Amino acid sequence: MGLADEGLTRRLKALACTAPLHDLDARKAKLDWADATIYQMAEIALHTIDQVTIAMDFDTGAGHDEVIDRLLPFIAQQAPSRMPEEHVRVAKWVLDNLINVGTTDRGFRRVYGSMGPGGYQRRQFDFKLLVELAARDGEVYLRATDEAINVLVGALDTDVESAQIAAEVKLENLINRGRLADAKLAAEQARYRTVQYGETLRAKLDATRRDVRSVDWEREVPELLDSALSHIEARFRAENAILKNITTARDETEDLDRKRRAAELVDIVGDCIRRHTRLQSRLADAGAVFRAEQDRQQFSGPPQRATLDLFGQLLVPTLGLPLADAVAPAEHFFHAVAGITAPVVPSLSSLVSLLLRPAPERDQLVGEVPEPELMPADITDKFGDDVWRAADDLLDLPEVPRRLSGLLEEARRSRQPGLPALVALRAVHAYSPGVGAARRQGDRQVLLAVDDGTLLDDPDFGGADLLLSTAAVERADEEENEEVA
Fold first, then answer.
1. pLDDT at residue 344 greater than cutoff 70
2. Deepest in the core among 82, 357, 408, 440, taking most CB within 10 A?
3. How confident is the model at residue 168 (pLDDT cuts 50, 70, 90)?
4. Among 100-104, 308-312, 391-395, which stretch is predicted with the lowest mean pLDDT?
5. What would the 3-class secondary structure string for the chain be?
6. pLDDT value at 87 more than 90
7. Does residue 366 surpass a pLDDT of 80?
């Protein structure tokens, strides 16, 4: 029963890793900037993870622009009739969703069940597919997580070395049988496992640089290094033999398709050999990294003050409090982080020294005051008086309302520069007129604009074709006289 439950848990986790990819296809119909139903978003997401994994090195990863450039040919094949700008936007949308941009920790969470001593229990599985890391030069690059690599190869929590050996044996068998199409898939899976093996070592070294005590360098890591070196030695022999067979098959065959597939296999296996070479150099330096970090952390001293998680320990609990209870901790926090304030009254020692300071020489402080060169004031009124008077005549509409489109056409016929623009500005301002200000200023009438849903058909302006009219305004003194009467 325990083995069955463990296998069920692993399969549930594997399904959880594919959920964000299916979610892309479920949400593509809701995009308002394109009809994205033509795109297969899950396939684009898998291709994105593939490109990031291939570009990963031990210390660096793939750049955002590099990944998007590699995705564009694949996306263009799905929708060749769409514009290249839309292809770029689709690539960025898929990449942002795989990083899970917009969430706090940029991770995914799925709930699954497992059988335990207390019966059926619901658990949470937190994982990430693509992560953004900063290089030493400040550049941000992408790396695929173990979960993302497992999505590609179709297994979860598989022993890396066993999977690598199985992939190499399967690859050699397929090549010997001449099944180069299947051999390419096996070679790609072998490369993913090689990347995953490097990720395991990189995670151990990163944890060592943070805290050497968090990693078991007495037994676990030495065993890992020994097995990794043995693994690389065996893989070098196997991959060089496989590379020799593929090269022979590529050079001797007359079939162009078979020659192309063999050439692709040569590139993939050659990349595996290069990755193993880089991994071997990192394994050789792992012991030196441990000794250097041990010396550095041993003599750095204990931390003088415990760190505080502002988000988890302060912000989240404070947001859950009532307003009256949340004021006190918020005030304490802001008073502490505001910094030191200068005292209003100086201390006695500073006051005495200030009073005993000799007076400065006046001739050293006051000199000849230069005459400033004043520039003429800029003209702030864009429209002249004639244009304003012409606009007042056009917008004097006491009886029958008129459309903005007709007023603009009449303003253009007058051939006064700036008159159509002034009419349009005053019409927009009349959509919410200041009636109260007009009464206080003693204006007799005010311009009103109403939108009845008609669109404006004009070569220079867009929006609604407003209905414009003027309404009389009762002044405040007239109302007072009526009340007295």
1. no
2. 408
3. low
4. 308-312
5. CHHHHHHHHHHHHHHHHHHHHHHHHHHHHHCCCCCHHHCCHHHHHHHHHHHHHHHCCCCCCECHHHHHHHHHHHHHHHCCCCCHHHHHHHHHHHHHHHHCCCCCCCCEEEEEEEEECCEEEEEEEEECCEEEEECCCCCEEEEECHHHHHHHHCCCCCCHHHHHHHHHHHHHHHHHCCCHHHHHHHHHHHHHHHHHHHHHHHHHHHHHHHCHHHCCCCCHHHHHHHHHHHHHHHHHHHHHHHHHHHHHHHHHCCCHHHHHHHHHHHHHHHHHHHHHHHHHHHHHHHHHHHHHHHHHHHHCCCCCCCCCCHHHHHHHHHHCCCHHHHHHHHHHHHHHHCCCCCCCCCCHHHHHHHHCCCCCCHHHHCCCCCCCCCCCCCCCCCCCHHHHHHHHHHCCCCCCCEEHHHHHHHHHHCCCCCHHHHHHHHHHHCCCCCHHHHHHHCCCEEEEEECCCCECCCCCCCCECCEEEEEECCCHHHHHHHHHC
6. yes
7. no
Q: What is the pLDDT of residues 280-306, one digit of tens each?
A: 888 788 878 877 877 777 765 555 555
The amino acid at residue 250 is: R
User: How does residue 93 score in pLDDT terms, banded at 50, 70 and 90?
Assistant: very high
Burial, 326: exposed, middle or buried (Cβ in 10 Å; 0-12, 13-18, 19+)? Answer: middle
Q: What is the pTM of this model?
A: 0.45
Contacts 24+ apart (CB under 8 A), 439-447: 439/473, 439/474, 439/475, 439/476, 440/476, 442/475, 443/473, 444/472, 444/473, 445/398, 445/470, 445/471, 445/472, 445/473, 446/470, 446/471, 446/473, 447/395, 447/397
Bridge partners of residue 144, in order along the sequence = 130
